[in-house]
Structures
1.
Amino acid sequence: MRVKATEENIKLAGKIIKEGGLVAFPTETVYGLGANALNPYAVAKIFEVKKRPTFDPLIVHISKIEWLEKLTTQVDEKALKLIEKFWPGPLTLVLPKSNIVPDIVTAGLPTVAIRMPSHNVALALIENAETPISAPSANPFGYISPTTADHVERMLGDKIDLILDGGKCPIGIESTVLSLIDEEPKILRPGGLPVEEIEKIIGKVKIQPSSEKILSPGQLKKHYSPKTPVRIFKSLDELSEINETENVGILLFKKNELKIKAKHIEVLSENGDLIEAAANLFSALHRLDDSGVSVIYAQAVTETGLGLAIMDRLRKASAPAEN
Ligand code: AMP
Ligand code: MG
């Protein structure tokens, strides 16, 4: 349903987000497809709706600076100067993440991208939701970013709980993404805030050279993959060939009786629900990786809906290390 962004409707939208639903909302850059950033199941639904064949890290939108402390473990002086000057506005900062940020928000990375939008509707929505909102652009995979509610409605109208119509986005291109993880700040994506403006405040910043440009954020080399070797299996019968003297970890899509003993088992979704499985995937991989097993057997899922992105991630995890 598409509604005008009145005070009353923003309240309703906030409630929908708080309760785990999806709301498309205007920001000064583009329309975002928002979910409660602290609810992994709600965030998984974003990927379901966008039909992205990969998981990629999402920007977390905040309305108050207090959230920055809760979502990160370190905010250095450069970050503070930039925030002082450019927030609210089209600048996204990548910082070390705290434990409250679910792994699906960051695609398993130890860092989180945060921004405070300057659009009044976006700010009011976050306030009403009483939680940070993670949101990519509100378009299906492969389509251009929406800058009007009409774009969103045409592309995703039947798939989301509410579209807040706040008119045309004033900037119309995405935010500039700046990583403050390494000693030298680095532009990961040029966007609505010019690099020159950033350099006036913190000095020279590196720009990711085009040779390193990623075709899709999901192809980022630093994307999380377990250190433990991962092997994908299709049917449970294949597990009977496992040598039990191996220190085995198993990642099951749904609950199953196993005939073999494993040191650590993770079940992504008791009933085999793809959205729940996606919400749990990264945390489960982390736990398996930390459990001290020497190999992880991961159950294949059907490649429909979120199954496509889940399999993309499992294949990446099972491919030999690139470097
Ligand atoms: P979009 O979802 O279209 O707004 O794009 C979000 C951008 O932020 C993408 O280019 C992501 O790769 C980038 N991004 C989000 N989180 C991180 C992170 N933790 N580290 C690096 N880049 C990130
Ligand atoms: Mg996008």
2.
Amino acid sequence: MRACRFHLGSDHGGVELRDELAAVLTADGHTIMSTAGPRSADESADYPDIAVTVCRRLLEDPGSFGLLVCGTGQGMAMTANRIPGIRAALVGDVFSARMARAHNDANVLCLGQRVLGSELAKALAREFAATSFEGGRHQRRVDKLMRAGS
Ligand code: RB5
């Protein structure tokens, strides 16, 4: 299995799942390079601040991935996708977690603690980490995606 480097982050709505996934990814042989956000759900944080911090960290660490968790994952994904160089995928099923890597070369996985069961979330993170970008015709599309709007 390939080993990945992850930068993690959550707001107060995703602390428990973030820490649970850190343990799972570490046990699978991946490395948690950094963790951003509150230590407990009692400590409020604004998801855009966390998303920006994590995305900056992974852009400074080429080849690494981001994992962002908030209540729904929506705010994290919306923020992350405003940052040049980021392709953030909000997923809730294993097939989409795989395709986000294989076809879209997603470099950030966004999850919602308040919408996903713990076992599904673990499966999503594992699938994302285990899947490589296929390149080929998908590279052309990702290149277009990265130029879109400019
Ligand atoms: C925080 O209450 C909540 O709005 C946040 O975690 C997230 O769901 C936003 O997208």
3.
Amino acid sequence: MAEEKRTIGLSTKIFISLLLGAAAGIAVNYGLPSGYFKDTILVNGILYVIGNGFIRLMQMLVIPLVMCSLICGAMAIGDTKTLGKVGVKTLGFYLVTTALAVGIALTIGLLVHPGLGLNIDIVETSEVAVSESTGFADTLLNIIPKNVFASMANGDMLPIIVFSVFVGILLAKLGSRAKTVSNFFAQFNDIMMEMTMSVMELAPIGVFCMIAKTFSTIGFDAFLPMIKYMLSVIAALAIQCFIIYQVLLFLLTRLNPTKFIRKFFPVMQFAFSTSTSNATIPLSIDTLDHKMGVSRKISSFTIPLGATINMDGTAIMQGVAVVFVAEAYGYQLTPTMLLTVIATATLASIGTAGVPSVGLVTLAMVLTSVGLPTEGIALIMGIDRILDMLRTAVNITGDAVCTTIVAKQEGDFDIDVFNKD
Ligand code: ASP
């Protein structure tokens, strides 16, 4: 009970600091003249250091937490048959919802025509640093780690997931012969969960600084020219999050979607404030466990996997961006091109890391696949920050909905916890 009180208190605090941060950021943007104090000391000094310090704390948790919880999860699921079933179901759900998301985004883009009438000549294009995107064959191969320590050092989630699941399965198989190692991971897992809760206590301060910094640099003006593009992305995100997911949740589990959203909202807020799916993994697993009744056995596998490969929100941004760039540069989108975009954006979602702005980088892969100019990314870069926040919230909601559905169907679900307010 005390635990519950504390959690509710914390999420209210996070929400309040989100609002206060936005207000403070706007006040700084419009009320303070540019100069050493505002730019160097306040925005890029205090707000940057505290906000990013908090994000780093969350990021610090990710690799050890994911490894331990995956190893424990695979160990607990034990027999490979169940793990395989959960894995196949989860993968199927992730891929289908992402393809659906791109379809919705393209449809809205084609209805709204966000890029029509935009005179590309008058738009100031800035240099875009787009890293080489990896081909499909290599994306697949990279799932197998050549050196798991290198993957850990680089934060490459997929190879870490593969390795951890492998270790977990073997620990289950070896049983008492590997008791020391199993205990080690179980105990380390407890330490990481405790650490997560401690770091979360700092969330209100971190969120305030992150939001204040965003608003103090972007302000309102930056949004205006691209308002149609933004609204299209937002509309598609809303449809995916509040209609598609909720219908799927209801049809496949009969659970109350409103209740789900209400309970999951703090995690969405957190993802919104940080733009980082990876950093929300601990909180998401914890919320699904304590508020929804989803067993950690399932969530410790599906949530890190989802945060790594399932980015429906990102795919939506990319779908609308394709229409926007095509129209802005005067290209005609053929049906074949649209199908290609659905395929490549779904793959790009797998390759997008759950950290801020990576969706813009993998957008290059999507644009190139249909011959559109990657310079188009520069057009939407300036306003991507706010969309990144929104799409990250959708990204992690998709993971949670899938996890809940799989857990419910596999019987690893406690309905009493879900029903409790
Ligand atoms: N920020 C997103 C995430 O962490 C990824 C992206 O679309 O840039 O989920």
4.
Amino acid sequence: MAISSTQAIPPTQAIPEHVAIIMDGNGRWATQRHLPRTAGHAKGVQAVRRVVEACGRRGVRYLTLFAFSSENWRRPAEEVSLLMRLFVQALEREVDKLNEQGVRLHVVGDMSRFEPRLQTLIAEAQARTAQNDRLHLSVAANYGGRWDILQATRAMLAQNPGLARDPQRIDEQHLAAHLSMAWAPEPDLFIRTGGEQRISNFLIWQLAYTELYFTDQYWPDFGAAELDAAFEWYRNRERRFGRTSAQLRDGAAR
Ligand code: FPP
């Protein structure tokens, strides 16, 4: 079980172990160029490729991308169906390359609303990369942080009905063990492109002590250099996890 940032002090390194990204700005990138919004999503897939490769080379162990939120179903039907087609294409075309790069693919979210063909492709891609351990790439699809906490609560109580009769016994670990990314450490660095400064129901439990980095760049323009700028900013953060700066200095001097 991964270390909880509210229960213990997780180790920190110069390169974040887990990076979580909201890939925002595809639509605006396209509109600026008088292209349909969907062209921005297609371009966004190229940025995904660049960032996966760059993270692998820099030693990031976990990369989690918010590809489709529980709320994105509210978008125009044609945009939703283009996004679904892009997932299918990416799963069909990219899995060999991911395998060569030692990437293990996980898709996290409520799969039940996806077409059976997409569900099958997801299961196959996950199985085919299951032996890899260099970089864990998680694609959050039909994912929402509140959905995750609710499904974890239900799973926890189903596994241990006694907890409902004695709720005082419930601790963080009971619940966290059932979150959809229970196997991963909490993100060290969160990046959101596209200029908005909000979490948008992404990993809301796990972001408790994550460093939050916002950039105005649109996702299709994001690549290795922009990732390095985010890492440079991260390196200069003082991660206190509730302690004071003086405590950190004293610890370092000892
Ligand atoms: C946000 O931009 C982006 C999305 C909702 C979709 C992200 C999807 C991809 C990058 C492509 C598919 C990904 C994979 C992993 C195959 P927006 O449309 O909200 O942009 P806007 O704020 O400018 O309108």
